[in-house]
Amino acid sequence: xxxxxxxxxxxxxxxxxxxxxxxxxxxxxxxxxxxxxxxxxxxxxxxxxxxxxxxxxxxxxxxxxxxxxxxxxxxxxxxxxxxxxxxxxxxxxxxxxxxxxxxxxxxxxxxxxxxxxxxxxxxxxxxxxxxxxxxxxxxxxxxxxxxx
Length: 148
Fold this sequence. Notes:
The protein is mostly helical. The protein is 45% helix and 9% strand.
């Protein structure tokens, strides 16, 4: 038996893709959006870059309406990686008792303000080996799969 896959053409990139590459949309006759998921994500990224204030307010409204979402995400994240949760708890305790001190600036770019702890490894003997990074450097470190 041969199964025919539904194929659609993205209105933006003009590439033919399987229907599963398009988000669902109840208002469309086809039941799918006209942009593929990759193009829609790129469009949203560009929109947020062009309209930072509106994007920030939109995110705030969403979080006000759904206050449980970040908590649910973190609970699942910690459940899926308990060694990371343990490492975070160990660093939190060490900060509280004064065993380690959080610097006021990012150790990579020197930017002041809020700094976040980046673990090289979540293994037991590396849990207190933390680099203090600003959110931008921290995101880059995770994208690179380690330290900058």
